[in-house]
Design brief:
8-stranded parallel sheet
Length: 258
């Protein structure tokens, strides 16, 4: 079985002590590709260094994370845009709106999100959307930008069944991570009517580890636990989960098959 971790921050310092071993653990469990979303201009170099070190395993995405949007957001965006002109990436991300921590820069978050969606359309790339405490605003912005050229995934989907339907109507995917395994999670019910052909697997490592690893550092190898829970929720074999979600990722991110 082959899996793809469509969202993991493996370049962060959380993995400095054992990065190679961590990647090997993932590969041994069938996670053969790992997609790395950017955070800000400072994370570009470590992200690209890791992708250059493991070119057949780690794939870069570039964007300005909404919680990194501040007074210098235009400088940040310029640095990311300049890198995009010389660097092949599989997506623009992660981008979006986050109103959980701070609403001070909401206007700037909105401007940054709109601009990066335009980049994605111009470059024929998918977008990876981060949204927290931002429904329905995020829907308004995506629907406003959708002209048939916009595609992507709502990373770490944690919305309602109504939110899921709206995402399906947009033609987007939903990223399913460790939250699915949590005891009080409402996610199983929310995705009960979502076809597997609209779901992607992701860890968001080092964050949001699945059961039974809660409280520990998350890593890409734990995709297997997420896939196992999804198989249970969807009453499918884990083999079917692997095949369908892997094909979804290959299709959305235009990945080559080895």
């Amino acid at each position: 079985m082959q899996f793809i971790d469509t969202h993991c921050h493996l370049y962060l310092e959380n993995f400095d002590a054992d990065r190679d071993a961590m990647l090997q653990r993932a590969i041994e469990r069938g996670i053969t590709k790992m997609l790395l979303p950017n955070i800000d201009m400072q994370s570009i170099t470590p992200l690209l260094n890791l992708c250059n070190q493991y070119p057949e395993i780690c794939y870069p995405m570039l964007g300005l994370h909404p919680t990194s949007v501040g007074a210098d957001f235009e400088v940040q965006l310029q640095a990311i845009e300049a890198t995009l002109k010389n660097q092949k990436v599989v997506a623009i991300g992660e981008i979006g709106i986050d109103l959980y921590w701070d609403k001070t820069f909401l206007e700037q978050q909105t401007k940054a999100f709109r601009l990066q969606m335009e980049w994605a359309k111009d470059m024929a790339l998918p977008i990876v959307i981060h949204t927290r405490e931002a429904f329905p605003m995020i829907f308004y912005l995506v629907e406003e930008a959708q002209d048939g050229r916009l595609k992507g995934v709502f990373h770490c989907f944690s919305g309602s069944s109504e939110d899921a339907k709206r995402i399906l109507d947009l033609g987007f995917y939903m990223g399913i991570g460790g939250v699915l395994t949590y005891k009080k999670s409402t996610l199983p019910e929310a995705i009960s009517n979502v076809p597997l052909t609209s779901l992607l697997l992701e860890t968001d490592a080092p964050f949001l580890p699945p059961v039974p690893f809660r409280g520990k550092r998350n890593e890409s190898a734990y995709i297997f636990e997420i896939a196992s829970k999804l198989a249970e929720v969807k009453q499918q074999s884990i083999k079917a989960i692997a095949e369908i979600t892997t094909q979804n990722a290959i299709s959305l991110f235009n990945l080559s098959i080895q």
